[in-house]
Amino acid sequence: MRIGEFAKQSGISVRMLRFYESAGILVPARTPGGYREYREQDIAFVRKVVLLNRAGLALKDIALMRDCLNDEPQNFCPALRGKLANTLAHIGSQIKSLHQSEQLLASLLAAEGEKWRE
Question: Domain with 46 in it: what CATH number?
């Protein structure tokens, strides 16, 4: 499928798809006329890229793990295990911090009208 249709189906803008391509993350096939040609499985791949980026991984790191993100059975890329473990730990600490903030806000709302003290 061409880039416009792929953008619609994946929910990712044409501009971002081209950016992923320039970063070496997304490598679509080309038609004899030079048009980008995407496959159905590229949709799941590019969605994984978006999730990893939102999780805090830099695009340069995602580009390095590009071959690890396809759906073919394979051994996990061991060189990236540490990077992923660090990112997972960071997300865990963010969740803990957000939970503490949530509890504080809830207690402030529950104490509305009373004098609040630390």
Answer: 1.10.1660.10
Range 19-27 average pLDDT? 91
What is residue 116's predicted lDDT score, i.e. its pLDDT? 56
At residue 106, the 3 state secondary structure works out as helix
Domain range for 44: 1-73
Residue 68 sits in the same domain as residue 82: no
- The 10s digit of each residue's pLDDT in 2-18 is 999 999 999 999 999 99
- Same domain, yes or no: 41 and 87: no
Q: How many domains does the chain have?
A: 2
CB neighbour class for 66 (10 Å; exposed up to 12, middle 13-18, buried from 19): middle
**Its pTM surpasses 0.85:** no
pLDDT at res. 117: 56
b/e code 76-113 from CB counts within 10 Å (16+ = b): eeeebeebbeebeeeeeeeeeeeeeeeeeeeeeeeeee
87 and 58 within one domain = no
